[in-house]
Write a structure and sequence with these properties.
The complex is a heterodimer of chains A (about 375) and B (about 190).
Chain A: H1 43-46, H2 64-97, H3 108-113, H4 117-147, E1 149-151, H5 158-171, E2 177-181, E3 188-191, E4 199-203, H6 204-209, H7 212-227, H8 230-257, H9 270-314, H10 317-334, H11 340-344, H12 376-384
Parallel strand pairs in A: 2-4
Antiparallel strand pairs in A: 1-2, 3-4
Chain B: H1 2-57, H2 64-86, H3 90-116, H4 118-121, H5 124-159, H6 163-169, H7 182-185
Classes of the chains: A mainly alpha (about 375), B mainly alpha (about 190).
Chain lengths: ~375, ~190
């Protein structure tokens, strides 16, 4: 969708990390000497004796708790706003379908509660709740199925199992299920409704290309999604957005062909109904767009949050930055040619697999209103200046 | 009318006190659980050492003293941990911690040595074991990190207003952070001959 302009792939050469060569698959390109982390939780000092995947990175602030709190607040606000928005749309549609009987004598409150408005809002709320429950109970299995994830072998993929367990220990969570997706595209995602019943899935390409520290950073990011209960938020939000899109489409159709019972009950129509009709037209056109923009805004917030959590868990921001840059380069290489399964799960991955140079050969530098992920530059900048 | 307002306020205060008390108990149990997790990982380390030593013994006859130091440190650590678990005096615990620290340092040196010799590292068995050892060392570090995180969250509750009022009433005390001394945080040195 919103491709930024003014940025071309060859400018990438100017960035300090573009000089790193292609990956030599199967080996650890970064020396692994820093894999026995200091028990002392002091990220500032610790970054200095780590291997250097990236040059010139340092953490300015380390207010993880503040970053996490701020993110939670924003997410909750968006969730709430979306639900209210959906109910307001339901209210308008309800008024349109069943206009209120409004003699001059009744007060404003009675007028607001009469007619189909309240029913419409309630229907939206109940439908949202039911659909969310359904999505919550089956959603993660579906996502894993679409991605083609298989249980990781405890012997052959010992390192992955170890890293997942290390991060579970760091987060104080039970070890999640570990799955592997047999794709060369390096990426990862987490599914599961509660921190206790999570699954972390990584692709074969990721295992082949990342050093142990970087793999740990990616797994920590996914553990962060689990610990923060992100999929729960995202399921509820996407259900609300889906409902709004459907109802808005219905409302547009209604408005186009004229409300069903409106013609018959014109005698008390008056100004209120005309106003509702106008509002309904405007909202029906704008609602789906605004709802989706909110969903993507939330999705971007959760990515920042998971990055912050990952740094908190590993105390190793350099590995996180290094991993993000590698994944970004890989996404840039695959881009729009990413497999269909990757497309369907666009928002779930740690980096957007479709965020590559499209047919136009351009690639976005900043995240637009309809991006599921923040741009890699923004994410790295935030990891650097945590807070 | 007034009586209901007063009753309502009392009920709210009581609910708050109950919630805070339960929160404090939960966090204190979290701290204890996090501490238990560290010893689980230490045990894993003890079990790993004999296998690792057996696997690299032939290949690195020239690093005899590193191996022997690790074996001796492991023996001391196992004994000291058992004493600390049975007796559990403060001195015993301190001794167990010191022994564990020594073992950690020895293992760090061993790992560094193995890394430095490609022909040892490339053996499947050895590379598996070094991965296990590396993971174990990470787990110990992360378990300690989580222990300290839990202590921080518990101490915050005990010291911050207004939950500190409830904590004071029921005798919740702050916990000490896990401290590491400078010797352990130092990077192990490797001498290549």
């Amino acid at each position: 969708m919103a491709r930024g302009k003014g940025w071309r792939p060859w400018q990438r050469q100017a960035s300090p990390w573009a000089r790193r060569g292609p990956w030599d698959t199967g080996t650890d390109p970064v020396p692994d000497e820093g894999t026995m982390p200091d028990p002392a939780p002091d990220p500032i000092r610790e970054t200095e004796d780590r291997p250097e995947p990236v040059e010139g990175i340092r953490i300015d602030r380390t207010d993880f708790a503040g970053a996490i709190r701020a993110n939670r607040r924003k997410s909750l606000a968006i969730c709430l706003g979306l639900t209210l928005f959906g109910m307001a749309l339901g209210y308008l549609v309800g008024w349109w379908v069943a206009p209120p009987y409004a003699p001059e004598s009744t007060g404003t409150l009675a007028l607001l509660l009469s007619g189909g408005g309240a029913v419409g809002a309630a229907v939206m709320a109940v439908a949202g709740g039911l659909w969310s429950t359904l999505a919550l109970t089956t959603g993660d299995r579906m996502a894993l199925g679409i991605a083609g994830a298989r249980e990781a072998d405890p012997v052959a993929d010992r390192r992955l199992h170890n890293v997942v367990e290390e991060m579970a220990i760091a987060a104080g969570l039970p070890k999640p299920r570990v799955m592997v997706i047999e794709t060369e595209m390096p990426n990862a995602f987490a599914a599961g409704l509660s921190p206790e019943k999570g699954t972390i899935a990584v692709t074969r390409g990721l295992l082949n290309r990342l050093s142990r520290d970087e793999l740990q950073a990616v797994v920590a990011h996914e553990t962060g999604h689990l610990a923060n209960g992100d999929s729960r938020y995202m399921v509820v939000v996407s259900v609300m957005v889906g409902l709004i899109v459907i109802v808005a489409a219905m409302a547009r159709r209604l408005a186009y062909f004229g409300g069903g019972s409106r013609r018959g009950s014109d005698r008390n129509g008056g100004n209120a109904l005309a106003l509702v009709a106008l509002l309904l037209m405007v909202v029906a056109i704008l609602a789906p767009v605004a709802a989706q923009a909110m969903q993507f805004a939330l999705s971007r917030q959760r990515e920042y949050l998971a990055d912050a959590t990952a740094v908190k868990l590993t105390r190793n921001p350099k590995a996180m930055i290094g991993a993000l840059m590698r994944l970004d380069e890989a996404a840039a290489a695959t881009g729009r040619d990413a497999p269909t399964s990757a497309r369907a799960l666009e928002a779930l991955w740690i980096v957007n697999p479709l965020d590559g140079p499209g047919e136009s050969g351009r690639r976005r530098r900043r995240a637009g209103l309809f991006s599921t992920h923040p741009s890699i530059d923004d994410r790295i900048a935030r990891i650097r200046a945590m807070g | 009318m007034e009586i209901w307002i007063i009753l309502g306020i009392v009920a709210l205060v009581a609910l708050y006190a109950i919630a805070t008390y339960n929160g404090l108990v939960g966090r204190r149990n979290g701290v204890r659980n996090a501490f238990a997790q560290i010893s689980v990982q230490l045990k894993r380390r003890h079990d790993l050492v004999p296998n690792l030593v057996a696997a690299v013994r032939d290949a690195m006859a020239f690093e005899r003293e590193t191996l022997e130091a690790v074996v001796a440190a492991r023996g001391k650590a196992v004994a000291a941990t058992q004493r600390a678990e049975q007796g559990g005096s403060a001195a015993d615990r301190a001794q167990a911690l010191a022994a564990e620290r020594e073992l950690g340092a020895g293992l760090g040196r061993l790992l560094a040595v193995v890394e430095a010799y490609p022909e040892i590292r490339s053996g499947t068995h050895v590379s598996e074991l070094t991965e296990e050892l590396r993971s174990t060392e990470n787990r110990i570090a992360f378990a300690r990190q989580h222990y300290n995180d839990s202590i921080q969250s518990y101490n915050d509750r005990v010291q911050m207003f207004p939950s500190n009022l409830i904590a004071g009433m029921f005798g919740f005390r702050t916990e000490e952070f896990f401290q590491v001394d400078a010797a352990e945080t130092a990077v192990p040195t490797v001498s290549l001959r």
